[in-house]
TrEMBL record:
<feature type="binding site">
    <location>
        <position position="35"/>
    </location>
    <ligand>
        <name>substrate</name>
    </ligand>
</feature>
<feature type="active site" description="Proton acceptor">
    <location>
        <position position="78"/>
    </location>
</feature>
<feature type="binding site">
    <location>
        <begin position="204"/>
        <end position="206"/>
    </location>
    <ligand>
        <name>substrate</name>
    </ligand>
</feature>
<feature type="binding site">
    <location>
        <begin position="75"/>
        <end position="77"/>
    </location>
    <ligand>
        <name>substrate</name>
    </ligand>
</feature>
<keyword id="KW-0460">Magnesium</keyword>
<comment type="function">
    <text>Catalyzes the condensation of isopentenyl diphosphate (IPP) with allylic pyrophosphates generating different type of terpenoids.</text>
</comment>
<dbReference type="GO" id="GO:0008834">
    <property type="term" value="F:ditrans,polycis-undecaprenyl-diphosphate synthase [(2E,6E)-farnesyl-diphosphate specific] activity"/>
</dbReference>
<dbReference type="GO" id="GO:0005829">
    <property type="term" value="C:cytosol"/>
</dbReference>
<feature type="binding site">
    <location>
        <position position="30"/>
    </location>
    <ligand>
        <name>Mg(2+)</name>
    </ligand>
</feature>
<keyword id="KW-0808">Transferase</keyword>
<dbReference type="GO" id="GO:0000287">
    <property type="term" value="F:magnesium ion binding"/>
</dbReference>
<feature type="binding site">
    <location>
        <position position="79"/>
    </location>
    <ligand>
        <name>substrate</name>
    </ligand>
</feature>
<feature type="binding site">
    <location>
        <position position="43"/>
    </location>
    <ligand>
        <name>substrate</name>
    </ligand>
</feature>
<comment type="similarity">
    <text>Belongs to the UPP synthase family.</text>
</comment>
<feature type="binding site">
    <location>
        <position position="47"/>
    </location>
    <ligand>
        <name>substrate</name>
    </ligand>
</feature>
<keyword id="KW-0479">Metal-binding</keyword>
<dbReference type="InterPro" id="IPR036424">
    <property type="entry name" value="UPP_synth-like_sf"/>
</dbReference>
């Protein structure tokens, strides 16, 4: 199956009505296990089908001109699952890098990984690094993969980095600003997510992008992730386009 986005644009696109499209869409890809259980299949089959849905989403994001997508692929809390499921998910990551990386590279996709790295197994670390290094200079869709990611631990790591600079005398406490914290996070340099989509009917963040989501729009859909397709994505995008973002101010008509 091809993962190539059909085209890659940099500027945020507009839909046919001229409404502004999101620059950055983040996905909490949830419901793989329930998708499988509902069909009498092992949960692992849900994860396999979830990867197929992800390929569709990457392709479609490029086609509609979204600049960045972030996918929650494995949380820092997902290590608490049974060992067999964790191993299967690691195998799936390995297969994704082995099978899809060259095609993503050809499609000009730039891959960036966010999440804790310090206690990852060397084999996994090498895969993540390979994906980032190969695609580092690409200029198309940014694909941000949240792996071993937890927002609280990301914020803790950023706080520790800034504290170390202050302790070394390279920074004043007053220089710990919102911009300094933003720059110390794993997502440094990326725009905040405009839209966060969570599938499977759950309405929570599960430790995803807590800092970056301050003014994100949320879209929850009942489909399990393996059933999420281009039509579901378009529906979420058109819902986003109909929203008025006020950032604490007043809407444009009230000015
Ligand atoms: C999301 O699906 C994939 C990961 C968390 C890795 P789940 O595995 O959480 O599926 P449900 O929520 O149990 O159905
Ligand atoms: C969030 O889903 C993590 C990913 C999608 C990778 P979970 O299934 O782990 O979240 P909870 O446990 O339902 O909150
Ligand atoms: Mg889940």
């Amino acid at each position: 199956m091809s993962v190539s986005p059909d085209r890659n644009l940099h500027a945020p696109a507009a839909d046919e009505t001229g409404a502004k499209m999101p620059r950055h869409v983040a996905f909490i890809m949830d419901g793989n296990g329930r998708w499988a259980t509902a069909r009498g299949l092992p949960r692992t089959e849900g994860h396999r089908q979830g990867l197929a849905a992800l390929r569709k989403v990457i392709r479609h994001a490029g086609r509609v001109g979204i600049e960045t997508i972030t996918i929650y692929s494995f949380s820092s809390e997902n290590w608490n699952r049974p060992q067999a499921e964790v191993s299967f998910l690691m195998g799936l990551l390995r297969r994704f890098v082995q099978r899809d990386l060259s095609e993503l590279h050809e499609a000009n996709v730039r891959i960036r990984i966010i999440g804790g790295r310090s206690d990852l197994e060397p084999g996994i670390l090498a895969l993540l690094k390979e994906a980032e290094d190969l695609t580092r200079h690409n200029t198309g869709l940014n694909l941000v993969v949240a792996f071993n990611y937890g927002a609280r631990s990301e914020i803790v790591r950023a706080a520790q980095e800034l504290a170390a600079k202050v302790q070394a005398g390279d920074m004043q406490p007053a220089e710990i600003t919102e911009d300094a914290i933003t720059a110390a996070l794993d997502t440094s340099g990326l725009p905040d997510p405009d839209l966060i989509i969570r599938t499977s009917g759950e309405m929570r963040l599960s430790n995803f992008l807590l800092w970056q989501a301050a003014y994100s729009e949320f879209y929850f859909c009942d489909l399990y992730w393996p059933d999420f397709d281009e039509a579901a994505f378009d529906k979420a995008l058109s819902c986003f386009c109909s929203r008025e973002r006020r950032y604490g101010g007043l809407d444009a008509k009230a000015n």
